[in-house]
Amino acid sequence: MNSVQPALEDGDYGLARRALEAHRPAPGQEDLRGFEWRYFWKLSQDDSLESWRGHSNFVSYLAVSPDGKTLASGSFDGSIRLRDLASGRVTTLSVNAGNVNSVAFSPDGRFLAAGNYTGPAQLWELASGRMISLFDGEWSRVSFSPVQALLAVSSGGVTVSGGVTATVSVWDCTRQEPGRTFPESGSRTAFSPDGKILAIGSLDDAIKLWDIATGQLRQTLTNSGSITSLAFSPDGQRLVASNEKGEVQFWDLATGHQSTPLSGHTAKVWSAAFSPDSQTLATASSDQTIGLWDVVSQRSKGRLKGHGREVLSVAFLPDGKRLVSASNDGTLRLWSAESKEETKRIADDLVLSPSQDIMVLQGRPQGMGFGVFVFSEDGLRMAAAGGDGVNIWDLATKQVLGTITNEFRALALTDSGRTLVTIDTNYNLRFWDWEKQLLRTNFVLSTTDEPIGTAQLSPGGKVLATATRGGR
Fold first, then answer.
1. What is the pTM of this model?
2. What are the DSSP calls for 257-309, one per residue?
């Protein structure tokens, strides 16, 4: 249990949930979980609107259909699944697609393409559910033009899985005919919004912009790092690239100017996607978070947390108000695209000071940590659990006056705020002179077969009420 609170404070919801799951009783075992387990379990649940399972391995990539009605997902379990976002109905397009690393819809919604690490790219006709094409080469990746059924397919040998020597071919899927080929160019591709330019990036610190009609190199963008994804803004003004260092790079396409890389993720960024209005960028990272960025100011708008492992792919829905993500925790998740600063969480609890002139909204605490808030009788001080234990706050100055470490929850501030009463994870009730860091009294509450589920001290500090999980 000691690892749960630090994991939550670090945003590692997966680690917190796994640590809590270890305390679930096996069938026939006594359930010894108390209030702290249930409290932490509630805090470890994420802020996504919905979470979907179905794949038996991690979900490597997703794409949203042009009409916004269907979500396609590919997995290392070899399957490609189509989810109707209105009804929730899921159909399996393929169970033998290999280790899928990319999926893409054609702009008219007729076709779905999929690339994979273990074989050639595949093209599916969605109306019939038939695979109609296989493309040569392994370590394949795919991306569609947004204006016509032109498909970019990159492929290369195992030793050049993301390297310079991967070859990109452009196919006309309506006519089933090959188009231009860009040899030894790279493996990450993206079409411009007007479909005239194909951006190709690789591991050689460069992105090249090619004219689709003439096959001529139009521009080379350098200092990109080892590219993991590329995306044009829908207004055509910017190109963004993510890389293995966790950086997100912006280029102004009119001037070729490269902005200072966005920093905030602590691990590799796998995917980047613009909102339909080009104002927000979403990024998916190995640090288990989705970053939201203001495109104009290039400042963080917040972070979406809740996936239990690396986030591998992200995409906006056409309304721009929601986005979807895929992770190697095996889930797809639906989120509100509003930033953390814009979205105000409705409190789980309202706490009034004795004078009723200060109200604390207790939801998922930010900064003050975990646990309930308690006031001194004179309303001048407040105690609340934080990262290192229980903190005592001066409400006038909003400063921490002291901390009692390794305590789980504050129950009361008595004796004009001089005595702090806490309870720890072993159900010990403690009375502290917090200014002197002196433990005055310690009571062991869990003396029966049933552990204490909750405890509350009366306002005068003379009566303690406890309740067990069984209701005693």
1. 0.69
2. PBPPPB---SS-EEEEEE-TTSSEEEEEETTSEEEEEETTT--EEEEEE--SS
